TrEMBL record:
Keyword Hydrolase: no
Official protein name in the record: Glucose sorbosone dehydrogenase
Extent of the signal sequence: 1-26
InterPro entries for this protein: 6-blade_b-propeller_TolB-like, Glc/Sorbosone_DH, Quinoprot_gluc/sorb_DH_b-prop
SUPFAM superfamilies: Soluble quinoprotein glucose dehydrogenase
Alphabetical UniProt keywords: Signal
Amino acid sequence: MSAPPYPRARRVRTALAASCATLLLAATGCSLGEPDPDPAGEPPNLPTPSASASAGDQSVVATVLARGLRVPWGIAFLPDGGALVTERDSGRILQVGPESSPDGLKITEVQTIDGVAAAGEGGLLGIAVSPDFAQDRTVFVYYTTERDNRIARLRLGEAPTPILTGIPKAGIHNGGGLAFGPDGQLYASTGDAGDTAQSQDVKRLGGKILRITREGKPAPGNPFPNSPVWSLGHRNVQGIAWDGDRMYAVEFGQNTWDEINQITKGKNYGWPEVEGRGGDKKYVDPIVQWSTDEASCSGLAAVERLLATACLRGQRLWLVELTDTGTVLGQPQALLTEQYGRLRAIAAAPDGSLWVSTSNHDGRGQPAPEDDRILRLVFAGGGAGRS
């Protein structure tokens, strides 16, 4: 695979660490500073930081960028530094930023996707911006209809064109992750839709990670002939991310273990035969597992050697530091525990920060007056997981 499309993350994180001496210092480490100027212009006029937290040697400052959303599910960045955000239940695509408003960043409704049938965990889910957006103005969305889950492409403001249909749907386990890999192909994560037999059947789309072209066809080099399936044996993957050319996914367990897995072409991750580490060589063991009450994570992002996953039931952000070979360094660290309620989407911004959404209006949370929110997180100090 080729190099990732946003190599700025390492430079931004290095610049943040180097500038600690000149920024406001907190007891736990370096606090929030303005991002480096973008080559296209000056940094946005961001709101005042609203909270800080620390875990081990890692500290974070959180700023509320947007308020009053309803179940924001996916976040994908545009070339101008703003982001497209999907709302699961309303079927709306919103643009957040880059312009400012008195309460944060400006929120603009772009359009509502016709045909979205929001129920249970289904609705308008993942979103991905074309790597060639400046030329083709195209985005891709994953959403639930009355008949299925599907992936469609569209130009903003225009009707979507389905490119892959027939992904199984249910009130639970609809998957929904959508992202372009460093190879330029489109990856999607699907759930087993409550039918566990789908996950081990390579001929069915449920319980898989898929890899397709922008036209919805199986991508060249896929492991199974004429199939979009990239990996199988998943229960319900929502978050996917890359550290260089290594792919990772976060997966909901049933009653015992939630997982982060390193995803390899054609491999089987064991569901429903195994939950968590099983020791069976037929299946790939997770690199990290947590009990479901402290995790149940949805979104996943990677910045340099750091994986960050946003958790719903666990109401926290888990940080996992990786070695140069992709193994886990030290112990995962928890941040923001029960500070903002349920956390769902997480995405690495072009400036090296992380954007995270709350999900307190999803029927399982206790929404505060400002919910749901988009947070901007800036890290400083030592790497997560260091002892």
